[in-house]
Amino acid sequence: MHDQLASLYPQHLATLRERADQALAFGGFDHLVIAAGTPLRKFLDDQDYPFTVNPHFKHWLPLTDAPGSWIVYTPGSKPKLIFLQPRDYWHVVPQAPHGYWVEHFDISIVRNAADATAQLPTSHRAVIAASGDGVEANNPAAVLDYLHWHRSYKTSYELALMREASRIGTRAHRAAEASFRAGRSEFGIHLTYLAAARQTDAELPYSSIVGLNEHGAVLHYTSFDRVPPAHSRSFLIDAGASAAGYASDITRTYASAQAAEFQALIDSVDAAQQGFVAKVRAGQSYPELHIHAHHVLAGVLREHGFIRMSAESAVESGVSSTFFPHGLGHPIGLQVHDVAGFQQDEHGGSIARPAGHPYLRMTRVLEPGMVVTIEPGLYFIDMLLAELRDKPVAADIDWARVDAFRQYGGIRIEDDVVCTDSAPENLTRDAFALL
Ligand code: GLY
Ligand code: MN
Ligand code: MN
User: Fold this and answer.
1) For residue 131, how far is its CA from the centre of ligand 3 (angstroms)?
2) CA distance 397 to 45
């Protein structure tokens, strides 16, 4: 892994430099200045929230825990890292820079934040930082739009890290499934997941969703019951992992050996999901794929006896949205919900979502190098089913069948998929297959 990263990194950095040259030219700036960031202090407290690095910073370097450090890039010059290694015996201070990337930077080690900011260029600078990072940030739209747009196209180095994030995540998913089959609580399964990933909660790209039975119907269920239910009928786990700041985002749903009817529905959603993954091809409109998914999932609802109307009318009447009430997926990379999912072009703008689909996070046409999630689901959500029951179309629904499935919560199957020049690369299924 290390040798592979070392060989891929120079091209990655060259790509980032070219992009930065162009972004600065568009914005009319001479320097790009990127803060690693500063930990956020809790209100009326002397404690900080877990540190989350500026994604622009970790784009350049595999450093996710260097608060107070800065990158300065001036076109034509070697990029500079101003690395804060405070004098501090209370905390672990960041290790001195080491690894395959250090030779590509001019590195200056400083002992306090003021010495770091004193080394920043003072004029014609595009500063990408949050308020509170110690320097007035301008976050120029022309620069950010250009960089965000091009972040959609992953370099070979980034894809290597995303494969690694998928390997870690799938390894932990396997352990979590075994923990479910052993009858553990949500909390117990969560701890199993962390142990197998060898990552802390704060290191994961997002809070894990670990739901047994009805809890699978809560799209972002993050409560973790400490006690196992009397019977674990079903299990939905949406959990990812990080590799040098790159995310994986993986969901699987399982049925107990006794829940054959739910397993059959999982199998249908799984087959549908693989069909959507196969359409992650250059030129495919993502919102059209999302609408296509509604039609296919409506067909699954009909085939399994939940609805009596045609798939077409289930989509037109909004019935499919009762059971599939979120978007098909989103861009993923340095952030689990990565930037530029709606962007019109490298100068900004926004592509609207299709009417009636307010939660879709990606409206672009797929191109080689993009990585997106494909995460269809079918859920039995009390609130949405109650709304549906009051509509005329309720007559075409088999409510006894629907009610029988509420005990399972819901199904989501989520993979991370690379769009290439030819067949898609499924990071998630490839990683599961390697286990
Ligand atoms: N885990 C959040 C998502 O799937 O988008
Ligand atoms: Mn996702
Ligand atoms: Mn997810």
Assistant:
1) 29
2) 53
Q: What is the pLDDT of residue 350?
A: 98
pLDDT at res. 92: 82
Of all protein residues, the one whose alpha carbon is nearest to atom 3 of ligand 1 is 249
**156-434 classified as CATH 3.90.230.10:** yes
| Residues of the chain below pLDDT 50 | none
* CATH 3.90.230.10 residue window(s) in the chain: 156-434
The boundaries of every CATH 3.40.350.10 domain in the chain are 2-151
> In terms of CATH architecture, what is 2-151?
3-Layer(aba) Sandwich (3.40)
The Cα 199–Cα 175 span in angstroms is 14
pTM of the predicted model as reported, rounded to 2 decimal places:
0.97
- Ligand 1: residue of 238, 374, 415 to mutate (most ligand atoms within 8 A of CB) is 238
CA distance readout (Å), 107 to 18, 116, 133, 369, 380:
21, 11, 20, 31, 55
Is 375 touching ligand 1 by the criterion CB < 6 Å?
yes
Closest residue by Cα to residue 53 from 41, 43, 68: 68
Cβ of 26 less than 6 Å from ligand 1? no
For residue 206 and ligand 1, the question of a CB distance below 6 A is answered with: yes
Cα of 414 from ligand 2 centre, angstroms? 7
Positive or negative, the Cα torsion across 110, 115, 116, 118? Answer: negative
- Going from the Cα of 123 to the center of ligand 2, the distance in angstroms, rounded, reads 40
Q: How far is the CA of 407 from the centre of ligand 1 (A)?
A: 23
